[in-house]
Every structure is written in structure tokens, then in C-alpha cells.
Amino acid sequence: AAAAAAPAADAAGASGSGRSGPVRELSQPAQAQLQQWLLADPPVLLQACLHGAARLFPSLPDSIVQVFAVERSVGRLVRYCVEHEIAETESDNTLLRNNWRSTRILSVLARAISPHYLVNVLGPMVRDVRANPQLYNLQQDTDKLRRRSERAVAELLQSTLERLLTTLGSVPPLMRVILYELRCAIAVQLPTLEDRGLRAFFFLRYLCPAMTAPVEYGLAEEDLSPQALGSLAAISKIMMNVALGQVFGGNGNGNGNGN
Fold first, then answer.
1. Residue in 97, 163, 94 with CA at minimum distance from that of residue 128
2. DSSP characters for 154-169?
3. What is the pTM of this model?
């Protein structure tokens, strides 16, 4: 598609339109062709990306999301990826846990459209851990220090969950679309997992990855220390297990006192 559209983009650029970006510079016939490929039933372009050698092109999900966003076809993209994810789910324990290309596209899409929301919700947590990583380190040498860290982590998680509740009104509209499509698909095919599926995507695929990669997700401008990253990783596991109603061991391998 890119190769076929390149001459049209060059011609549009040479005409002095002053617009930038390969999709916006396409001629009208080329835009119509791209739209047809995107919205075909089945969507040929998206299927090629989902079933192709995407591991050789790690930026592919980002590119597909950008193309669909420009073409105002995000709703169709979300619906297709959700249907693909549910169809590939083999058991209750694998829902949204496999690294399908469709799941990765949904994760990239959620991340791309809501950076400010992530900063508002998780920014204070990242700053606190960065300022005092030892306080939130659950692998302490003495019982006294371990209990102090457990209390600090519990308070940090409580404040973050309270911030989630107070910012419900600012959840980005497109995130609401993703959760709505997930809920509809799960309710039909896996009705007993409806709530669990929503929590799994929101925490497992959205909040927790941001906690473990704060620079990549725009939560920090500079790299954190290894100790701070380790503390954030342990806290993210606790948050994930809280969301799914499970129990977690505080030292990161299930043998600690973080429950």
C-alpha cells in the first residue's frame, strides 16, 4: 500500500499543498483505495498485519493504529481486534494474557490516545518511588524494615486506587470504546469473565506496563535506578493481583509477606 501510494504522495507534495504526512498527502483516488483496504470485510490490510511476520517489524502495530486514526476508522479496528482476541482465547486463564498482534494493537492504541491520563494517575506513584526507592523495596533484611516497606507500599497503592476512582470522569473516550467492545464480546462468548476481562485489559495491558516502563510511557523524563524499577515492578504485580482478586507474595516471587 505504501509503495503504491508513494507516487501520489510525491505528486501532492510537489503541487505545493503545504500539508505533511504520507496519509494526508495521498491523492483522492489513493485515499479511497486505502479506505477500501482498511474497511473491507474482511479487512485485508489488518489481516495481513495480524497474520504476517510482525515480529520482524516491531513498529507495525503503531503504524496501523496511526493509519486507522487518520482514516477515522478506529472503531472498526477496535472491534476487529477484540473479536480476534476473544476467538483465540482457549481458557479462562489466557484471556488477554497472550501476546496476539490484535492485543498488542489494542495496547498501543490505548497508550497512544491517553498519555495525559496515565501521567495524572500514575505520575505521583512514580515520583514517590523514584525519590525513595529503598522505602518501597519489599526485599528487606529485617522484619522491622520489611514491615515499614509493606506499609509504605500499601499506602502508595491505596492512594493510587483512590486517584483512579476520582479520575473516572477523565478516562479517555477511546479507552471507553475499547472497554465497551471488550465487554460486549466477552458477555456473548465468555459471560462468566465479563468483569475479569475488563480489569485484565485495564490493568494488565494498560496501567501495569506503564509502571514498569515509566520513561517509555512518558511518566518520567530520565531513567530510574534499577532499585526503583524493581520496586515499581513488584508494586505493579501487587496491583494486578488486587485487580484480579488474587494473592501476591511481596518479594516478587510469591514467597514474601506483601499479602
1. 163
2. HHHHHHHHHHHHHTGG
3. 0.66
